[in-house]
Amino acid sequence: xxxxxxxxxxxxxxxxxxxxxxxxxxxxxxxxxxxxxxxxxxxxxxxxxxxxxxxxxxxxxxxxxxxxxxxxxxxxxxxxxxxxxxxxxxxxxxxxxxxxxxxxxxxxxxxxxxxxxxxxxxxxxxxxxxxxxxxxxxxxxxxxxxxxxxxxxxxxxxxxxxxxxxxxxxxxxxxxxxxxxxxxxxxxxxxxxxxxxxxxxxxxxxxxxxxxxxxxxxxxxxxxxxxxxxxxxxxxxxxxxxxxxxxxxxxxxxxxxxxxxxxxxxxxxxxxxxxxxxxxxxxxxxxxxxxxxxxxxxxxxxxxxxxxxxxxxxxxxxxxxxxxxxxxxxxxxxxxxxxxxxxxxxxxxxxxxxxxxxxxxxxxxxxxxxxxxxxxxxxxxxxxxxxxxxxxxxxxxxxxxxxxxxxxxxxxxxxxxxxxxxxxxxxxxxxxxxxxxxxxxxxxxxxxxxxxxxxxxxxxxxxxxxxxxxxxxxxxxxxxx
Length: 481
Prior knowledge:
Layout: E1 3-7, E2 14-18, H1 41-44, H2 64-71, H3 76-82, H4 87-98, E3 109-115, E4 121-127, E5 132-137, E6 145-150, E7 153-157, E8 163-166, E9 173-175, E10 185-189, E11 195-201, E12 215-219, H5 220-227, E13 228-233, E14 243-248, E15 253-258, E16 265-267, E17 273-279, E18 282-287, E19 292-296, E20 303-308, E21 318-322, E22 328-337, E23 347-357, E24 362-366, E25 372-376, E26 382-385, E27 396-399, H6 406-409, E28 418-421, E29 426-428, E30 443-445, H7 465-471, E31 473-476
Helix pairs in contact: 2-4
């Protein structure tokens, strides 16, 4: 079987299409036009036209080492499809995964809930690099909500509000300790000693717990929707010791767990956190008011440092990210009335980006981040270079809805997803028409095909390549506005 590999720009995805008679690697061979190999002009004068037609090429006979180099350039959907080409390609694919050499620069995708054939719920994944949508089978494990996406893994919640790590591409999971091991919560059992509800107590490190204080009672599923705010991971749990940091109510506090432990650990040193990232061994958490605290959890005791005091007024949501050029950025997103339609009560996003000046303890507004892109939402906040991800739009913020609990309280609440121009304060759609259901707000996911080894405690494997390829549906969609 012959395949054509077409590379869209430096670092872009490759399209694999059967039946092609020629192929090229524009970055490796000559300067011929894309999709063909051209002979030098002088050489063509000495070759009979009948002998200049290149024979059909059989890509299945490529040496494994060269084929592995090719696979390193592919985006996740193409890499999955390549495994189904033939046994040789599957071997190369397996080799890549076994040595943890899967493609490094995977462009983030938009993950959402959609409807598959027959009205069944399914996971949709919109590829920003290909501008295509894929439909995947809904995981066997119950997902009632998700509160984070990091290193290709989702932090999901089941019908008892217990949290679990899920790689939606491979199907691997890691079960986290139950709700009943968290601070601030007490299980309520019915007469048959069966878990029925959760009771939440309101206190923090400075405000002591009062026995007779008012509490809140939540059903098993309702607890997670109302209490969990956001989670982030220290690393890919399939390749190292992973720590999960959770921002939760009451008062936007922090709790963490090391994957494999049996209990959650409460950090009673701060409140009002809205976002958290991991960098060089430290978790950096930002509050509503812009204060930044750092936590090191690698030793026998927790180390906390306050890097920045509160410097802004309380906002609805503040994100933090370590920019690739070295600065720490704070991104503030809120909803404002559309100034062009003040009487329509139409709300539009407003996103402001600030550079943190630690010496002067202030934030400096910026409207140009150059050839970089920001991703914000329920996923871990990230900053990427368009040199590595050429299909993204520079100086833009890709955002998803992170209005805590809004999609649960308002069933008809449409998730807000878009691409925001930092310079001129305009927003365009990621894709039109929108593909997602109101149930489960869309979330950014950077696909990962890393295998889970001994840390996989789900008692089973993930989706096989055959299953993924047989059930993967592709839909061509309109270009970004």
